[in-house]
Amino acid sequence: MNSRKATITGSDQPDSSQATVREFSLTLPMTVSGLDTRGQEFQENSVLSTISSEQASFLLRTRVERKTVLKLVISLPPKLADGQPLALVIKGRVRNSEQVPGEPELRRVVLELDSRYFIGSGEA
């Protein structure tokens, strides 16, 4: 697991300041669900790329619009969960979605996370 400092700009707010948070590079399997650009429900398996207290990033084939609410169900490694099948369940709003260079079917999505989360069997 790698960590780096990232600058988060609250661009949605006129007088927002920049904050520096620690962002972790993790490759954990997860399921992403929500509404696509056509308003249809979707569920897609993905892999978490980075996460901080403010945001998470990952690759997605499904196209989603900015500000769309998505739910992430991130499988926790057995070492962290005492061998139990536990997952971190968290929601957030799409901050950014951009095409991955050289991969026209993939988009890198940055999700602004809600402050609430749930750790459990994964279907909360």
Please count the beta strands (DSSP E, at least 2 residues each): 8
Overall pLDDT level = 83
The value of Rg in angstroms is 15 Å
The poorly predicted ranges are 1-17
CATH class: Mainly Beta
The residue fraction in helices comes out at under 10%
Query: What is the number of helices?
Result: 0
- What does the main sheet amount to? 6 strands, antiparallel, barrel
Features:
Thrombin, subunit H; six-stranded antiparallel barrel; globular; 124 residues; mainly beta
List the topology elements.
Layout lengths: L1 E8 L8 E8 L3 E7 L5 E11 L3 E6 L8 E7 L11 E14 L2 E18 L4
Antiparallel strand pairs: 1-2, 2-4, 3-4, 3-6, 4-5, 5-8, 6-7, 7-8
Description:
This protein has no helices and 8 strands. The chain has 124 residues and is mostly beta strands. The chain has a single domain (24-120), classed as Thrombin, subunit H (Beta Barrel). It has a 6-stranded antiparallel beta barrel with strand order 3-4-5-8-7-6. The radius of gyration is 15 Å and the shape is globular. The relative contact order is 0.19. Mean pLDDT is 83; it is low at 1-17.
Short description:
With 124 residues, the chain is mainly β.
